[in-house]
Design a protein that fits this description.
The protein is an alpha+beta fold and about 160 residues long. It is about 35% helix and about 15% strand. It contains seven helices and six strands; from the N terminus they run H-H-H-E-H-E-E-H-E-H-E-E-H.
């Protein structure tokens, strides 16, 4: 990076100093835990609690394509407000990805952590994100889920 670039974009420079070339792979994200839109909410909730996950990916049971996600904090709120019950299918509580007319940021194991932080801060979409689905470059396989907390923990435990 040239001096003029560092001076013109101090945020990128600070991020680069903070992560020192690390990528999503360095976070060692846990494998994604996926569920079917047809599975009962109770089953998805139990799976998430057993593994201490805050987000589950929702995959099409036939094609294994990514349909959306289930946010456990949001699901708890929906259950408390009785908007859904534990016997209903996951599809009633999941957040569906809007594919039409929307460009998604592909996050892979090779994505630099400064790009991941920018994604979380909403630099691409203008909306802050709490987690990222980590896929292969062709977006065919869900490899894991990275959260803001994973990124914060990485910075905390990495020597200065």
């Amino acid at each position: 990076m040239s001096d003029s670039t560092a001076q013109s974009d101090p945020i990128k420079s600070a991020w680069a100093d903070k992560y020192r070339g690390a990528t999503v792979e360095d976070l060692d994200p846990p494998s994604a835990l996926s569920t079917s839109p047809n599975a009962p909410i109770s089953q998805a909730l139990l799976s998430a609690f057993e593994r201490d996950y805050t987000h589950l990916t929702v995959l099409n049971p036939d094609t294994r394509s990514l349909l959306g996600y289930l946010s456990i904090p949001r699901l708890k709120a929906l259950l408390e407000s009785r908007a859904v019950t534990e016997n209903e299918p996951v599809e009633k509580a999941m957040v569906r990805f809007q594919r039409k007319g929307k460009k998604y940021k592909v996050i892979t194991m090779d994505t630099p952590l400064e790009e991941l932080e920018a994604f979380f801060e909403g630099s691409e979409e203008g909306q802050k994100q709490e987690f990222a689905v980590v896929t292969d470059g062709a977006r065919r396989f869900v490899l894991g889920v990275a959260t803001r907390a994973d990124l914060e923990e990485f910075v905390r435990r990495r020597p200065a």
